[in-house]
Each structure stands twice: as structure tokens, then as C-alpha cells.
């Protein structure tokens, strides 16, 4: 029987977004495979996390592409971006806490691509007079990641209704990012 790698990754992502400390045994059970089969796909937790990182970056790039960042105002584009990223917010929340992904020479270049595209959106909003200029585009990008991760955890824990996710993220970010007259 062939193992569907995408199914294993998505099962692992679903579990690890709820329980970041899950063991490889728990990941295997969640995917409906044996631990030995999981280890044939991923040599260990580090390899699994790196594969999830690649999936997360791929999903985020697809969301950025679908968002049409250059259309309409920067505020409108940001609202679309949060809506597109909502479906992968849980995976982003998990990856956001995996320090190994952001240290050393092995850092995936995909993060830099994502950061650059998001920062360009915030920079456009600043240049068009929509967003505050005293907060750097890099900081606004990090704030967006942080709010997405926090929102995903709050929804997962049942502290926030899933239907409110988009509204809360956008309103808090824009409420702090909008330029005041």
C-alpha cells in the first residue's frame, strides 16, 4: 500500500496545531499509519517539521497569489490576505513556535519571500497614506504573523469563535496600523 505523503503531512499538521508536543507515535496514529511507516517517510521529528515548513510556505505563497495584493487599496488587500491565510492559520501557529526553523544557515528562503511580499503590501499602504509610517513594514509583517498565530490558538482552544477570526485579526491590526490624522 502506497502512503499518501500529503495526507500524512496534513494529518500531522492538524494534530500538531492542536497539540504541538505530540509524539511521532501520535502523529502516526492521526495519519492512520504505523510509526515505522511514518519513519520511512520522515526520519524523525525534525524531518517532519521541515516538511511541514515546506507545506506551510507553499500554502502561504498560494494564499498570497490568490489575494491579488496589488489590486485595490492596501486595506482591501490586507483583508483578502487574512481571509486567504485563515485556512492555514493553525499550521502557521505551529510553525511560528518552531524556533529551529528560524535559526542558523538552514533557514528556508521561503520565509524571506513571504516576508518580502507582505512587507511590500504594508509599504504600499504607507506610501498611499493608509498605514502609519512610524511602524516599519517588517514590524507590521511580524505583527500579522503573531496575530494569525494567536487567533488560531484562540479558536483551537475555544476561546474565540471561528467565525470571528477574520474580523478580529483585521480590525486589531488595522486599528493599530491606520494612520491617524
Structure description:
With 181 residues, this protein is mostly helical. It is built from nine helices and no strands. The protein starts with a helix and ends with a helix. 29% of the residues are buried. The model has no long low-confidence stretch (mean pLDDT 89).
Strand and helix map with partners:
Elements: H1 5-18, H2 24-31, H3 35-41, H4 45-67, H5 74-85, H6 89-96, H7 109-127, H8 137-156, H9 165-177
Helix pairs in contact: 1-2, 1-4, 1-6, 2-3, 4-5, 4-7, 5-7, 5-9, 6-8, 7-8, 8-9
What structural class do helix, strand and pairing data support?
A: mainly alpha
- Uncertain runs with pLDDT below 50, 5 residues or more? none
The portion of residues assigned to helices is: 55-70%
Quaternary class: single chain
DSSP summary, beta strand count: 0
Discrete helix count? 9
State the order of secondary-structure elements, H for helix, E for strand.
HHHHHHHHH
N-C termini distance: 64 Å
Largest sheet, strands/sense/barrel = none
**Shape, principal axes of CA atoms:** elongated
Strand content: under 5%
Rg, alpha carbons: 18 Å
| Mean pLDDT score | 89
Can you describe this structure in just a few lines?
This protein is mainly α and 181 residues long. The protein contains nine helices and no strands.
Which key terms come to mind for this protein?
single chain, mainly alpha, 181 residues, 69% helix, elongated
